[in-house]
Every structure is written in structure tokens, then in C-alpha cells.
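the two lines:
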Amino acid sequence: MADAIRRLAVRGAPAIGLAAAYGLAVEALHDPSEVKHAAVLLRATRPTAVNLAWALDRALEAFALDPTAQALVDHAEALAVAQLDHDRAIGEHGAALLSPGARVLTHCNTGPLATGGAGTAGAVIASAWRAGRLAHVWVDETRPLLQGARLTAWELGRAGVPYEIVPDSAAGALMSRGLVDAVFVGADRIAANGDVANKIGTYAVAALAHRHGVPFYVAAPRSTIDPETPDGAAIPIEERLPDEITSVRGVRIAPAEANALNLAFDVTKNDLVTGIVTEAGVLRAPYCFTHR
Amino acid sequence: MADAIRRLAVRGAPAIGLAAAYGLAVEALHDPSEVKHAAVLLRATRPTAVNLAWALDRALEAFALDPTAQALVDHAEALAVAQLDHDRAIGEHGAALLSPGARVLTHCNTGPLATGGAGTAGAVIASAWRAGRLAHVWVDETRPLLQGARLTAWELGRAGVPYEIVPDSAAGALMSRGLVDAVFVGADRIAANGDVANKIGTYAVAALAHRHGVPFYVAAPRSTIDPETPDGAAIPIEERLPDEITSVRGVRIAPAEANALNLAFDVTKNDLVTGIVTEAGVLRAPYCFTHR
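prediction for all of em together
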């Protein structure tokens, strides 16, 4: 499971939390004495999404109270069920923010493939579509790993939602032309002050939205909020291998000796965030999270 | 030649102007009566870069005065020589804007491969490197066609300039971290009021640079300035085929039925442009071009 998370076979902040919880349960079924070691291994896979550490902490608490494999299986199952509820609530709260005919821009992948439920921003899009409030989705392709072009496009096509993929760099042109009514993205970690770490490129979209008066919403379960992280500067940003940039799907696109910098996430400061859509409702500035 | 320009075998605003001038000369060597028809064909290849129309207009003027193939050959040769001079001057004027240790971000390709000379923004980078003023270049990969990752990386590697490729969406994160001292880009058309059409994504970089107080310079020969185009809204923006986005170097990256919108250029308004570096020096706001 650690390997699957590390190489992104499972990705999306809520989904990796859930996968880690199940991973720990599987380890406990094999050898309960290895649970703590497995938690260390799983925790080290990816640094930015706080849901991973959160799910492991909750699992270890449950295991401390009841050191049986069944306790960890029950915890993982409960987490999966709660995620379904939370995603549904996020979708409904977010869809209520849109007016009929809305054209929404999104970045990265935040649908069922990212959470195990309906998604975060993806749940908002699906819910708005069902409610007849959505006209079009602009899907940022999301370089380097193309989660938008590969995963979000697949999810939206399957759901029958009208969409077009655009290069990440096109958001400004679309907003200049008045073609974007709202932005919805997910989050990998939300700091106590409302700063948001999310897929690289999120900050550019937020800054452009601000410039054009387009509302910029972050959709995330409260497990993505980390009161222990004071602000965005304190969020560890994962740096991945350059070959994710110099090659695309196994095809080399840059000269053989080319260097690349691969920051997987960036930070959007709280003043650019119109609202944070959680399962408990839409939170607005000033953000000050002391508990989830 | 028209086909080569259309499929981007020749690209870069100054280079396509030059290629069109030579194309016309070649046509005149074959059949002088076909020159006007050839000009119509060449002019229709790409709509945004004004250097194409400019070079054809100058060639047709020369041909009207002296309707021989030699007149068109001489015109093309003169244009090529002038481009070398202009690029050199642009490089020197631009390099003077940088302080030693500068870290420059650039978008798309603007070096020798784009002009036939030293380039536009690329000439500034080369000149600054030779003058010992440049520490590092951030190369936007420039989706969808990856002119940054493919061409600019190749040019910089060949010239020994230290660089790293980044996804287009990373410019904001780099600026947030204080890693960018200046942005230099080229242009496909500059309107009379200083609005700039350039490769899609340029506007996002300009807006982020503005937000972070990073100077944003456009480097272009005066043949890229079009006094006949009042502002950015009047610049025709080329829309190319979606498969440039849904496939990368022949590998399909999006679901089979996926749609994509492929705007090749965007417009950066004049208030975001710190200066326009031409062969005649650095021009600054307010921009009001009545002649080139």
C-alpha cells in the first residue's frame, strides 16, 4: 500500500487517507505487532496531504484502545462510510453556491477517483449538474501528471457532464473572455489560517480568479484542515522527480540532459479563497481553525 | 512554405515573417505571375503573428517597384540581415535591465529557432549570460506544443546557460518563493496601445509577475508592433486543433471522446507590461504606437 501511494496508483488527499487506514488494517490481519512500523512506513510516503497523517493517527488511537486487527478494519470501514456522507454534503453545499448556467473551472482531479466517495470539488460539479445548475466545466489538464486530462475528463465523460480540457496556462484567457463563473478545487492541506496547499498551479488559478472577480472555492472534508499547521509557509511541499516533467507517459519530450524542477504542490494564501466548502457547510474568511 | 508555417515546422513571429519573404522569392524564381497568389496563400497560414503580414507587405511593395524575382530575393536577404542586427540590439538593451545574479523566467521559445537571429527574449538571455548578469533561467514548458521543454531547453543547453524546465503552472510558486527576478517573453503582435498577444499562458505569467512586483518585459522587433491594431481585443487569436492538447508527441493522454479547447495565444494588457524591448531601445508606458 505504501508503494501504491508513493507511485500515485492511489492519489487524492482523502483517498490516500482511506488507503492508509485499510493498509494498516491489512497489516494487522497479518501481524498485529507490525502495525506501528507499518504506520511509520505509510506516513512517510507523501508529505503534503494531511489526510494521510490524520487517518493514521485516528487508526492508531483506535488500535491503542483495542489492539486487534478487527478494530483497524472497523476504523477503515467507518472512515469509508463517513467519506461517502461527507462528499455528498460537500457536493450539496457547493452546488448551492452556483446559479443555473454556471461555467466552472477546476484543476487536478477531485472526483470519485480522489476520495472513494463522490469527490470534493468533483462532488460539487456532479451535484450542480444533477441540480441543473451547471452548463460547462473547464478541465485544467494539470501538468505534469495530467490528472485533469486523464482522470477528471474520464469522470465527467462518464457522468455526461459537458466539458473541455484546456492547458493549465489557459485559465487567464478564459477568464478574460468572461467564460468562467466560479472555480472549484480540492486541497491537500488547509492550514489554521486558511492557506491552502493543493496541486501545483492552483495558486495561479486563484490569483487570476481574484483579478477577474471570479469566486474561488476550495472543497475539502474537515480532515484536510490541519489546525497544527499555522499557515501555508509551514506546509511541507513535496518535490518529485524531474522525469515527470521531461517525459510524458513514457515519451521523452525534453533534451536528454535537460533539468526540471518538479514541485508537486503550491500554496494559495487565504485572501484569495472565497470560501471553503466542507461537509459542515461553507466557511468564509477570516479563517481560524483550532479544531477540525 | 505555407505548409511548413501552418504545421509549425517554422514558427516564432520573426521567423515566419522571414520564411514568408523567402517563400515569395522562391515562387517568383519559378513563376513571377504567381507571386500575388502565393502572398495570399502565405498570409492565410496563421492569423496572430503580425510579422507575417508585415514581411509580405514589404515584399509586395518591393515587387511593385521592381517586378523581378531578384527584387524579392534581395528583400528577403535584407530582412534576414536586418533581423540579425535587430536581435543583437534587443539582446543588449534587454540585458542592461538585469543585475548580476538575475534569475529570469521565460515562456515559449524566443531564441535563434524563433527568429533566424539571436532571438528576442532569447537574445536578452544569451546577452545577459555573456555579460555575466544571469544566474538561472526558469523555462516554462509551454503546453500544448512544449516549445519551452523542446526548443528553449535545447538552445540554452547548447549555449551552456543554467536552466530548469517547469510546468507552466509553477510560475506562481517560483515567484512566491522569491526565485524570479524578471520575466522576459516574446510577442506575436503588439497593438497600438501596448497590449501584447503571445503564446497562451503569457497573460497568467504577467498577472503573477504584477502581483509579486517582478518586472515583466516583452522583447520584440518593431515589426511585431502593429499600429493598425488598436488594442488586444482587435488581435485575431488562432484556435488550433484539440488533438494538440489531447495527445502529446503522438501519445493519447485523454479519454478517446474527450474535447479540448486550444487557444494558441492570449492577450496581456498594457498595464502589466513593464517595458517593451525593441531594437530601438526599451519602450515604457504609456504606449501609443502610430508607426513601427
